[in-house]
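Appendix C reproduces, verbatim, an entry submitted by the partner laboratory led by Prof. M.T., so that reviewers can inspect both the input and the predicted structure.
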Amino acid sequence: MIKINRLAEVLEIKKITNRELAEKIKKTEETVSRWVNNHRQPPLTELYKIAKLLDTDIRELLYPTKP
């Protein structure tokens, strides 16, 4: 499976659990787990909320692509 987001890595750096993130953005822990494990991808609106909550640039949540 191709990883698209870096959500797991950023959450680890920020020391925030899936459950804490789920509570803060009003999503289920199962939904966040799917995003973290790259089984599903969060919509851009949710990525924006997550980036703002984690005080990080939205680009930090995504794997870079080759030019």
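Helices lie at 7-14, 18-25, 29-36, 44-53. Additional entries are available on request from the coordinating office.
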